[in-house]
């Protein structure tokens, strides 16, 4: 009697992989962020008037401020074109990828690079699919091309920041540096969202959807990494070689015991 093998086992393996992905904290967070982004996009596409009126009101107010304060407008252009520009974000991630590659951590380096490419592709597909028009002004203070939703600056900044924080934690950097990184990440995403709306090239919901999607996509990638490579951790980066669990998680009780005599110390 033959036993079922091959294709019949694949659905079970896929189900286990999905269950493992959802069980990861990053997987749960990814679902929440992606759901929030999908809701934001759905409200805009459906033409829900309170949401659209809010978009117009915020855009009009900030555009008036931009016209009245050219110094702020100039500063906003510098921030959006150089500090939080998508290519700046990709360059930062590229530096991290090269560093990982140099340390022979090539699989996670390729994983991070592929996540960045996936974010770029997803944004392009969504923009083409949604096709939302950008704000139009008689006296524009800046310009941008292609469709508006989701915001590329916000989406790339959010995805890149999450990936960099993950890689920093994976490499077991000091907690103080991680806290600084979290603060910098929040400021970076906030600056990307604010400057794009302030300069009149995006609606508020464009940046909201972009930041939520970027965060969700990066978190989904992190969860997928831990699901596919449960044994990979900071020891792979040359940190804490005695550990066999991922950073930040205690060893299972079966892996250690309290010393009971001088010979155990």
TrEMBL record:
<keyword id="KW-0812">Transmembrane</keyword>
<dbReference type="Pfam" id="PF01569">
    <property type="entry name" value="PAP2"/>
</dbReference>
<feature type="domain" description="Phosphatidic acid phosphatase type 2/haloperoxidase">
    <location>
        <begin position="105"/>
        <end position="222"/>
    </location>
</feature>
<keyword id="KW-0472">Membrane</keyword>
<feature type="transmembrane region" description="Helical">
    <location>
        <begin position="29"/>
        <end position="48"/>
    </location>
</feature>
<feature type="compositionally biased region" description="Basic and acidic residues">
    <location>
        <begin position="255"/>
        <end position="265"/>
    </location>
</feature>
<keyword id="KW-1133">Transmembrane helix</keyword>
<feature type="compositionally biased region" description="Polar residues">
    <location>
        <begin position="232"/>
        <end position="246"/>
    </location>
</feature>
<feature type="region of interest" description="Disordered">
    <location>
        <begin position="232"/>
        <end position="265"/>
    </location>
</feature>
<feature type="transmembrane region" description="Helical">
    <location>
        <begin position="82"/>
        <end position="101"/>
    </location>
</feature>
<feature type="transmembrane region" description="Helical">
    <location>
        <begin position="175"/>
        <end position="201"/>
    </location>
</feature>
<dbReference type="InterPro" id="IPR000326">
    <property type="entry name" value="PAP2/HPO"/>
</dbReference>
<dbReference type="InterPro" id="IPR036938">
    <property type="entry name" value="PAP2/HPO_sf"/>
</dbReference>
<feature type="transmembrane region" description="Helical">
    <location>
        <begin position="207"/>
        <end position="226"/>
    </location>
</feature>
<feature type="transmembrane region" description="Helical">
    <location>
        <begin position="108"/>
        <end position="126"/>
    </location>
</feature>
<feature type="transmembrane region" description="Helical">
    <location>
        <begin position="146"/>
        <end position="168"/>
    </location>
</feature>
<protein>
    <submittedName>
        <fullName>Phosphatase PAP2 family protein</fullName>
    </submittedName>
</protein>
């Amino acid at each position: 009697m033959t036993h079922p093998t091959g294709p019949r086992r694949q659905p079970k393996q896929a189900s286990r992989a999905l269950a493992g992905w959802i069980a990861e904290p990053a997987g749960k967070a990814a679902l929440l962020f992606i759901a929030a982004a999908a809701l934001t996009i759905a409200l805009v596409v459906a033409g829900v008037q309170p949401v659209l009126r809010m978009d117009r009101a915020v855009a009009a107010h900030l555009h008036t401020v931009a016209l009245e304060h050219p110094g702020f407008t100039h500063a906003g252009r510098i921030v959006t074109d150089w500090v939080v520009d998508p290519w700046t974000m990709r360059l930062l991630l590229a530096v991290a990828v090269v560093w990982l590659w140099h340390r022979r951590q090539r699989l996670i380096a390729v994983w991070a690079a592929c996540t960045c490419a996936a974010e770029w592709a997803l944004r392009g597909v969504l923009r083409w699919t949604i096709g939302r028009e950008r704000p139009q002004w008689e006296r524009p203070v800046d310009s941008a091309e292609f469709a508006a939703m989701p915001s590329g600056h916000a989406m790339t900044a959010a995805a890149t920041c999450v990936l960099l924080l993950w890689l920093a934690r994976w490499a077991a950097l000091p907690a103080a540096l991680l806290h600084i990184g979290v603060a910098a990440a929040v400021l970076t995403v906030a600056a990307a969202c604010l400057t794009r709306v302030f300069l009149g090239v995006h609606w508020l919901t464009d940046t909201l959807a972009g930041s939520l999607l970027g965060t969700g996509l990066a978190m989904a990638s992190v969860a997928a990494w831990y699901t596919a490579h449960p044994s990979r951790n900071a020891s792979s980066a040359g940190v804490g070689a005695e550990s066999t669990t991922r950073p930040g998680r205690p060893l299972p009780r079966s892996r250690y015991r309290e010393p009971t005599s001088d010979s155990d110390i």
